[in-house]
């Protein structure tokens, strides 16, 4: 029981010296990435840099204690930082007390929601965010994130949360561009792009072993940060228009609940729910992908609990909303992280950095952090997904396009709502119009196929229909209409057979429709039969009056039905020529 | 083409003398019911009595020209009148100009919506009102309607649109009860209840033929109206506290568009949509039931067009929203209405009544109209439906109970929204958790069944799973989780087979999940196979990269898959004893 609640009780019992050394290496590499990324994502969220570093401490310890993934690296991530900025920016001015308070409450609320979803095993709600909607959302969010960093890259006052605000702002403020900032940005961006593949290759060329070169390649962020900070300090670029980070408070965060404000909390409920769902979906797919590589598994509901506690931890330690991040998790996995202890060690390293390194961050140029953000999010952009998904399914493509458009034009929350709303509407639309096939017998066999697609024989007295969908209220009437239509089209009709092989469920509306079909057919002197009804469906029907009122029979197979209802047809069909004749007369 | 638009061009070509006489008789009987009912439902809607009579003129002519049902009797009906009262009462005080204006705009807006839904063939949206929700709504509306008539039955000032308002009002105003009104109400109610079966029986006893006695039995409403009016006039009861109808304007209505008010229209959009959907659903089910009895059919989309035009007609003739009514349609059918011309003749009779009879309506007691309403709606109440539906399906029962409770406690619109919302939520919940069965082979056969339910054999290297639902975003991850779980549970696993016989559709999210399953299994050295994939599903998969990336094969049948992947098992199974051994070792 205790072990179910605290997964670390399981893995810590077999913790070996090799595990320790693997976890230490992984923690070191992740820390080197996390210090600049944490500060960069805090900047993206409109928060002071330390909020990102605090988000890499207590949340990581909590996740290490409760999480079930061995490789997931929790902390500030770009998309959640953007959503935090959008939500906090809607209730307060960036940089104000109220803004920071909103960010803390977003962490607490989304954490509380994740925790509740996990405890009540409601993680399935995340499934309503379909893959195309997530994919479109992340690409659109990536565009917004990259665009929002133009102000730091150019050193100009470009602002706005959506493209219709960002673009005019960019055009009208382009004149303010600071040349030293642009040059610095260009150098850092160029270095970071090159380093993604080039640095490891260079190190390998210098004689390092391939795995070590790959690990050292991950220090590119650190190299960029240290070098650019040094350059700004040496050449006094901060007095020539290059914006620097300034004072970062030294030491650990103050712990405690943020000020309570009922009105604020009410306004943040909806965005917090979206942050909870998006954060969870991002995190769980990373965790599952990495776990599968080692034939391990993660428990979605316990992941929700762990992420929820991590966010609650962020909320009480002056941090920002967190979740599992893709790039750091892959690095963590590649570096050999053996257990969640790697995350705890990362948290301790970040704490030490906060106590020792913050004075050296004064001259860190904001342009470097912006470049780090841009390089990180460009890997999120996937423009080929839209045509691929559109080609596979128009409905999914439309939902994805709507998500992207609404996100870049109106904002992240509007984009998510539009995407989820449209995908649900299209889903309901599809189930409301099920595929139905009128069946005929493939001559000489026991098989029955769609009369529109196959060369089959039918009997004018028997109308056999197959519905390729469960029968429930959105489509109940469709079957009713189809059968009533057949009744008025076919004067010779004596029997209607509903083939139920693809029907997994019949709800009360569909049951009433079937009763009504039975009643209407009865009034017109026609019998109603079912064939190939599944066990669970039959169990449920037995609880109603339907089976007693049914004018016809329940046949085990469609062939049994035809033997009983159209014996002439089935015997005739052993002779193919006569079948053809019957068929012709049957139309 | 013209005939598709004007169905009367079809039936009028073969119109016989017999048709004419049948239609005339039906029109006469329906008119006799419609005059008191029209005035009564106008009173229920909070409108002057002539609004109900006007609603039985132009709308009937328009329906006769465009409708496809030969028996449907259009006009004011109780549930729509209640919804009109609720919507108009929310924007204006009963009896004011603004109130009547709101009722006219409700007719125009709901008519326009029906017309648009019909022209764009969007009638399927009505399917989202599930049968249990409609049934619960109509019973709850019946309770509210009956309760709202207590003021007229008692002659006391009882008001309120929901039970929490009606009940206290009833208790506090019970002292005002007018004894002559209560006595009159009791006599009329008693007579109407008795007449439902007793009058026809009495007439038959007096020597009338059975069909004629049944027809004359329908005059009970007229008898009640005429007699009670006469009694009030003779005994001067109007001066003793019995409320009478007063002046009803003589002659035809003024035609024309009501005053335009953008703010009012915006507030009425949502209730008008609900009136359109509820009105359509009530009407189409009556029309289809009556049509099926004669092996005729009605076209749902053209019915929407005809009902839409009827309501637009109501809106421009000072009437009230209309739809097809159950009781009058049955009378119309029983009386032998042969064509929609019966409706047109009814409209003409009503027009004549308006020109001649209105002066005689002055002393018509409101209590009589209230009694007519109560007797009509009591037949709508169906309290046995809830336990029956609950026994069949908890989800449907819950949606029905929610609809009833919200309707009587909070109002008609809230009830409908709660019912539709809950049924959609439960539907989505169910599809998000599909039934999945791990399959084993029934020894000695080609059949595969759930290992939890049947005595089957399995191979530890092969994991076969069947999903009893189409694969789409709400449930895509469920399959992924299940397979990933199997991967970590079964160290010997070499093959996973997904049996797709019940999968009618795979959307882009599910496709990505399958790709991810394929990828994860591949990483772990396990092959992924599909079996029994349906044609349309296969066509769609062929448009993606999935079939190229699939590590395993697509098998026509599950048996083919097992022959290829576990040949030892399938051959061993011809000997039942060895199968048992395999089975034991496979667990």
UniProtKB/TrEMBL annotation, chains A, B:
Q: Does the keyword Lipid metabolism apply?
A: no
This protein's UniProt keywords: Membrane, Transmembrane, Transmembrane helix
Where do the TM regions start and end? Answer: 20-44, 50-66, 73-92, 98-120, 132-154, 174-194, 215-235, 255-281, 302-321, 341-362, 369-386, 398-429
Report the CDD domains cross-referenced here.
STAS_SulP_like_sulfate_transporter
Sequence ranges assigned to domain STAS in this UniProt record: 452-572
As for subcellular location, the record says: Membrane
Q: Which Gene3D superfamilies match?
A: STAS domain (3.30.750.24)
PANTHER family, alphabetically? SULFATE TRANSPORTER (PTHR11814)
Give the protein's recorded name.
Answer: Sulfate permease
Organism annotation: Roseinatronobacter alkalisoli
**What's the name of its gene?**
sulP
């Amino acid at each position: 029981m205790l072990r179910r609640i605290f997964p670390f009780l399981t893995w810590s019992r077999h913790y070996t010296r090799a595990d320790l050394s693997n976890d230490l290496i992984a923690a070191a590499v992740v820390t080197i990435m996390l210090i600049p990324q944490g500060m960069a994502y805090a900047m993206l969220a409109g928060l002071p840099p330390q909020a990102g570093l605090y988000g890499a401490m207590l949340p990581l310890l909590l996740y290490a204690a409760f999480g079930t993934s061995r490789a997931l690296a929790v902390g500030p991530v770009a998309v959640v930082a953007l959503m935090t900025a959008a939500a906090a920016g809607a209730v307060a001015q960036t940089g104000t007390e109220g803004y920071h308070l909103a960010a803390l409450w977003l962490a607490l609320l989304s954490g509380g929601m994740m925790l509740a979803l996990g405890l009540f095993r409601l993680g399935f709600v995340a499934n309503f965010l379909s893959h195309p909607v997530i994919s479109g959302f992340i690409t659109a969010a990536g565009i917004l994130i990259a665009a929002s960093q133009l102000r730091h890259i150019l050193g100009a006052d470009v602002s706005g949360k959506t493209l219709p605000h960002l673009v005019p702002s960019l055009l009208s403020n382009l004149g303010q561009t600071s040349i030293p900032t642009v040059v610095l940005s260009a150098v850092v961006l160029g270095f970071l792009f090159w380093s993604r593949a080039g640095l490891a290759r260079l190190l390998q060329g210098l004689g390092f072993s391939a795995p070590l070169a790959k690990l050292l390649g991950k220090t590119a962020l650190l190299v960029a940060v240290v070098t650019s900070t040094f350059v700004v300090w040496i050449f006094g670029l901060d007095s020539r228009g290059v914006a620097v980070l300034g004072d970062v408070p030294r030491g650990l965060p103050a712990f405690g609940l943020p000020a309570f404000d009922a009105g604020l909390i009410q306004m943040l409920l909806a965005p917090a729910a979206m942050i909870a769902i998006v954060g969870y979906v991002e995190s769980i797919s990373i965790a599952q992908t990495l776990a599968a590589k080692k034939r391990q598994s993660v428990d979605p509901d316990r992941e929700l609990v762990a992420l929820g506690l991590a966010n609650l931890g962020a909320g009480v330690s002056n941090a920002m909303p967190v979740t599992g991040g893709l790039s750091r998790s892959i690095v963590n996995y590649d570096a050999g992280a053996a257990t969640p202890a790697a995350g705890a060690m990362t948290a301790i390293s970040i704490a030490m950095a906060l106590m020792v390194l913050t004075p050296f961050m004064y001259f860190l140029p904001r342009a470097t952090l912006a470049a780090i953000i841009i390089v990180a999010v460009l890997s999120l952009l996937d423009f080929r997904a839209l045509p691929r998904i559109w080609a596979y399914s128009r409905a999914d493509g439309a939902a994805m396009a709507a998500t992207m458009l609404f996100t870049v034009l109106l904002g992240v929350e509007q984009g998510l709502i539009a995407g989820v709303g449209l995908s649900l509407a299209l889903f309901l639309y599809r189930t409301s119009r099920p595929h139905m096939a009128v069946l005929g017998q493939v001559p000489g066999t026991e098989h029955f196929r769609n009369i529109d697609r196959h060369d089959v024989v039918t009997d004018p007295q028997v109308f056999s229909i197959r519905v390729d969908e469960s029968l429930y209220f959105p489509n109940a009437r469709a079957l009713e209409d189809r059968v009533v239509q057949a009744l008025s089209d076919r004067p010779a009709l004596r029997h209607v057979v509903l083939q139920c092989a693809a029907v997994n469920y019949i709800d009360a509306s569909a049951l009433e429709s079937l009763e009504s079909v039975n009643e209407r057919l009865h009034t017109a002197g026609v019998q109603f039969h079912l064939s190939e009804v599944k066990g669970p469906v039959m169990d449920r029907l037995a609880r109603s009056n339907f089976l007693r009122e049914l004018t016809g029979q329940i046949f085990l197979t469609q062939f049994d039905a035809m033997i009983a209802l159209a014996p002439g047809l089935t015997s005739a069909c052993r002779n193919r020529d006569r079948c053809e004749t019957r068929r012709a007369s049957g139309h």
